[in-house]
């Protein structure tokens, strides 16, 4: 852990926070310690705020453009891409079963978010922003081609009649440390447009939107 933190050039105070940040729930369950899930929750929000601040200062054309770029830059796929640049996968603690398979993309993205949660708690906002500027900003070119299917579907729907779409998690399967979610996207809370699965709720919703778009070319008026 010390080597990893030195590589990140972090003047850390509480090493245990970073140990927790890289502890997957499978390892935590086997060893009866805390997993990185709470830090992941915090870090995801911190990265979102930092990205919003960055995009605002970039003086983009409008809110819609900023919203679309933020969605691309803070999704799980983007966090995975940033994480690969610091070889985060090599430091994640996995339970025996997961260790045999290796950390998947979602686990790596989760650990990346948890890392930012740990830095925020340990060193504060300014140090977290500095890490953001060193790790994320130089690699934004890697994420602008990520498809934000939810935004694309929203635009498609609103290009016709002003109708609403909603997402619902319809199923959860698997143990707590390796869940799979199923989501449905509905038009006007009634008509199912698409269904998708994912290792996170957000991924499932993106895949549901993608499913709806693949089925596209439907006339919304026929769905009334």
Provide an overview of this structure.
54% of the residues lie in helices and 11% in strands. The protein is mainly alpha-helical. A three-stranded antiparallel sheet has the order 1-2-3, with helices on one face. Strand 1 and strand 2 form a beta hairpin.
Can you count the beta strands? 3
* Helix proportion: 40-55%
Main beta-sheet annotation: 3 strands, antiparallel
Mean pLDDT, all residues: 89
Number of self-contained structural domains: 2
The secondary structure category is: mainly alpha
- The CATH homologous superfamily of the largest domain is called Ribonuclease III domain
Sum up the overall morphology in one term.
globular
- Total helical elements: 11
What is the beta-strand fraction? 5-15%
């Amino acid at each position: 852990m010390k080597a990893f933190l030195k590589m990140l050039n972090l003047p850390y105070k509480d090493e245990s926070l970073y140990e927790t940040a890289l502890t997957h729930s499978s390892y935590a369950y086997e060893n009866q310690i805390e997993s990185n899930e709470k830090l992941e929750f915090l870090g995801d929000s911190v990265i979102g705020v930092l990205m919003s601040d960055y995009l605002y200062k970039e003086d983009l054309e409008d809110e819609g453009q900023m919203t679309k770029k933020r969605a691309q830059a803070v999704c799980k796929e983007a966090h995975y891409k940033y994480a690969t640049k610091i070889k985060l996968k090599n430091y994640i603690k996995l339970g025996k079963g997961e260790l045999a398979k290796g950390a998947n993309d979602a686990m790596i993205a989760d650990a990346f978010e948890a890392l930012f949660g740990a830095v925020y708690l340990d060193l504060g906002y300014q140090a977290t922003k500095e890490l953001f500027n060193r790790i994320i900003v130089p690699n934004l070119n890697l994420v602008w081609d990520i498809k934000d299917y939810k935004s694309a579907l929203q635009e498609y729907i609103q290009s016709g009649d002003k109708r609403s779409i909603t997402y619902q998690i319809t199923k959860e399967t698997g143990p707590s440390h390796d869940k799979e979610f199923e989501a449905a996207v509905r038009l006007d809370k009634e008509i199912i447009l698409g269904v998708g699965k994912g290792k996170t709720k957000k991924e499932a919703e993106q895949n549901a939107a993608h499913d709806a778009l693949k089925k596209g070319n439907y006339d919304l008026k026929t769905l009334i």
